[in-house]
Amino acid sequence: MAKDMNYAEILQKQKIFFNSQKTKDLTFRKTQLKKLKQLVKNNEKLLYEAIYKDFKKSEFETFGTEISFIYKDIDFYVKNLTSFAKPKKVTTNIVNQLGSSKIYQDPLGNCLIIGAWNYPYQLTLTPVIAAIAAGNTCMIKPSELPENTMRAMAKLINENFDAEFLYVVEGGIEETTEILRLRFDKIFFTGSPKVGKIVYKAAAEHLTPVTLELGGKSPAFITENADIDVAARRIVWGKFINAGQTCIAPDYVYVHEKIKDKFIQKLISEIKKRNYHENAEHYCQIINERNFDRLERMIDREKLIFGGEINKETRYISPTVLDNVTWEDAVMQEEIFGPILPILSYNNLYETILKIVNNEKPLSAYLFSNDSDEQKMLLEHLSFGGGCINDTLMHISNDNLPFGGVGNSGIGHYHGKYGFETFSHQKAVLDKSIYLEPELKYPPYTDGKLKILKKLL
Ligand code: NAD
Q1: Which of the four pLDDT bands, split at 50, 70 and 90, describes residue 158?
Q2: Of all atoms in ligand 1, which is nearest to the CA of residue 194?
Q3: Which residue ranges form the domains of the chain, and what is each CATH number?
């Protein structure tokens, strides 16, 4: 059906389908979610092959960081959506007696979901899952950079779902620009702050609400009160998984000068232990040549203390550590998004945090410290999307925590019940009894009425 239609026509079909009320039916939502899960299950092997072709991502990492998220989210919404969708009764204030008040979770309607390339399955499909659970239709635009995963998702969805409900657009900037001219009821975008601004401007044209899941430079602090072994192990894992191409990866490390040498020694021995060599099945490629060249330019050979091995043909960059880095260095001018770890040192945590406060608000922050005052200091002074104390990345795996950025790193959040709410409008309704009718609010106003009003309000 969709092949001979343009995007405007597909959206028109989605509008008609939404207005038919079918997506609001809870059984319909659950059935579609289960169907999607089964399709992913039946095609798991194809999905692994596609992503391996795109940037050599292993089955282990693809399952752990992408496919398992899809299964977990579907199971979660199938289990909870009846309760999430139920109108919530809230207290009714005195001036509205006799009455009752409820919040209805109203589906927003026709959603546009634009995904990033670095975790293509997770970042494209988990918002779709939340949108289906909340009773919406979706037009889906995966990133075109991992070409094979984009095609795999398009095939999976376009061949198995009706375009009036779900439709995957294959394409790049040109196609996205065209779709962004259309009037959606919600746009959910994952990507860079630069493109986030383009999406936000396009959405403003129709006053379409947006969720922007963006990026930034996420710091990791290691204080004198840290367990250095734990810090080294968890930073290496969080930095080099997906070859550093993770929005919430620790971008750079600020380590206390007294423990810097010891930390670097542990860090390097941890990297060696994980064996991220060129042919390692568990180590990803850089996504494309443009990003490879961008990253290569960030490796200042004079500051290189470990790694720095590169192969343009295989788009391999080994885990690379730069020391004595300053804010003037190339590597500190933008989000790295690759396997390069700059080390900066500090001697006063408070002053260092205050310095960072003036930068763009990061998507994540990590603190390795067992000192509660230091923990409190970071949490009180630095605004960031989300993060961990004594770990990296793992906050993303707890669905009881909202996931999203703040300021330049994003607007809004999702995951768990927050995802459901993101794709719903909280419709507030007061249901008033027709029997009790105090004269108070009606003219003519008298001094007596005003006295009572002042007491009441
Ligand atoms: P990107 O902004 O280049 O692309 C994201 C999407 O926007 C793609 O689907 C792409 O086709 C589309 N796009 C690109 N240029 C466009 C244009 N001019 N007009 C309209 N659409 C356009 O981002 P990316 O390279 O895919 O991902 C990297 C960035 O995304 C990093 O900044 C990273 O931190 C961020 N990110 C954030 C999250 C998060 O959850 N907050 C997750 C992953 C990545």
Answers
A1: very high
A2: 2
A3: 2-214+408-429 (3.40.605.10), 219-404 (3.40.309.10)
Instruction: Report the separation in Å between the CA atom of 6 and the middle of ligand 1, taken as the mean of its atom positions.
Output: 24
Residue 193 CA, ligand 1 centroid: distance in Å? 8
Active-site annotation holder among 213, 335, 374, 421:
213
Residue 429: DSSP 8-state? E
pTM of the model: 0.96
The HSE-up count of residue 100 (CA atoms within 13 Å, CB side) is 5
Residue owning the nearest CA to atom 31 of ligand 1: 192
| Interval 405-423: pLDDT, tens | 999 999 999 999 999 999 9
- What's the rounded Cα separation, in Å, for the pair 234 and 220? 11
- Per the annotation, the verdict on 213 as an active-site residue is yes
Query: What distance in Å separates the CA atoms of residue 366 and residue 41, rounded to the nearest whole number?
Result: 34
Write the pLDDT tens digit of every residue in 39-91: 999 999 999 999 999 999 999 999 999 999 999 999 999 999 999 999 999 99
Cα torsion angle, 65, 70, 73, 76, sign: negative
* Residue pointed to by tokens 């840290």: 226
Above pLDDT 70, what percent of the chain? 99
In the predicted model, what is the mean pLDDT of the chain?
97
Residue 436 pLDDT? 87
Section 373-392 average pLDDT: 98
In sequence order, which residues have a C-beta less than 8 Å from that of residue 136 and are 6 or more positions away?
A: 18, 23, 107, 108, 109, 110, 111, 185, 186, 423
Hey, what are 437's tokens? Answer: 């009718």
Protein residue whose Cα sits closest to atom 40 of ligand 1: 213
- Contacts of 218 by beta carbon, 8 Å cutoff, 6+ apart: 248, 249, 250, 251, 362, 363, 364, 365, 366, 384, 387
Kindly list the protein residues whose Cβ atom lies closer than 6 A to any atom of ligand 1. 114-118, 123, 141, 143-144, 172-173, 176-177, 190-192, 195, 198, 213-215, 247, 335, 337, 363, 405, 410
Give nearest CA residue, ligand 1 atom 34.
Answer: 215
Closest-lying ligand 1 atom to the alpha carbon of residue 291: 25
| H-state helical runs in 161-305 | 173-180, 193-205, 228-240, 260-274, 289-298
